[in-house]
Amino acid sequence: MAHNRRTNDGLSVVAISPEAGTELPPEVVSVVDPGRSRVPAATTDFVILQHEFGIYGEDDGIAVLDILDQLAAPSLVVLHTVLSDPSRSQRAIVEEMARQAQALVVMSEAARSRLEDNYLLHGCPVATIPHGSWLSDRPRGVPRSRPIVLTWGLLGPGKGLEQGIRALTGLRHLDNKPLYVIAGQTHPNVLRGQGERYRRHLADLAVDLGVDSMVRFINRYLTSADLASLRGLADVCLLPYESREQVTSGALVEAIGAGVPVIATKFPHAVELLGSGAGQLVGHDDPAGIAQAIELYLTDPEAVAIANAAIDRVRPSLSWLTVAQRYESLMVGVGATVGAA
Predict the structure, then answer these.
(1) Quick one: which of 74, 187, 201, 293 has the most CB atoms within 10 Å?
(2) What is the C-alpha to C-alpha distance for residues 230 and 149, in angstroms, rounded to an integer?
(3) Do 218 and 89 belong together in one domain?
C-alpha cells in the first residue's frame, strides 16, 4: 500500500498475486507477481508492505526482498507471522527485511518480544500496532430463539474445528441447545489439493457424535457485511486454533470489535488480548474445556457482563481509526529520521 502524493486520494493498493477470479476492490491500482514483474513506479510518501511467508512465491517468499529493493520510497514492513523457530531461509528473509525497511510493524507484544529476542534487526525500529477492526454495537441482552456459537474464516486443517464439534457433546443437556455456525469457504490451497474432503470430514464427525443438528456450515464467500451480520447474531465467538505460534489473529480482533465474548485456545495473541477478561482461554485439544466455557457464557449473565465490560475497555484501541492514526504517527516519525539522515 502507498499513499499517493499526486492525487492525494488516500491509499493506493498493489495486490500480490491474487487468486485467479478474485474480484479486486477499486483501490487496487495494479498486481505484482513476485519474481516475475516489476513494482510499478509511483510518486509515494511511504510504502506499507504486508508480509506473510506464503504470498511471495517459492523458497519462503524470498522474492519479497526483490520488491523491497525496487522501492524508491521509505517502507514499513508489517509482519503477520513471527516464528519462534524459523528455518535458516525464513530467518534470513526477516533479517534482510529489517535491514532494508525503515521500520517493522507487529500486531501484538508477543510478536514484538519474539522478534527482538530471536532475530538480528540491524537497528531497525519495531512498532506494535494492533490489527484493526470496524467497531459495531452488537445488541446485548436481547433474547434469542437459539444461542449461536460462531467460527468464521477460510476452512482448512489447523483451525481446530474438530474440537469445537466435539465440545457440542458436552452441551446436549442444555434445554436451549446452541447452534455452532462454521462460516466460510474452503481455503483455496486446500480446495486445490483435497477438494471438499475436509468439510465432509467435519460433517461426518458431527453425525458420528450425534450433534449434526447443532452444526451449520455456511459454504460461500462472505463479504464484510455478511461477516458483520453474523457476528451481530453470535453469542460467543470460538477460535479453537491448533497453532501455538499464532501471534496475530484478525478474527480475534474482529470478534472483540463486534462486542462478542471470545473463547480461544492459548495461542500467543489470544493469551495477550483475552487477558483483559474479554473472553475465556482453553487448552489445546480440550473439547471439555471448550464446552464448559461456552456453557458459562450461555447460562451465566454475570460472566457475560464481566466479558462485555472488558470488551468495552479494549475496543477503542482496536478501531481502524485509532490504528490508522498510529500508522500515520509512525510514518511521520520515521520520515523525520529519514529526512535528517
Answers:
(1) 293
(2) 10
(3) no
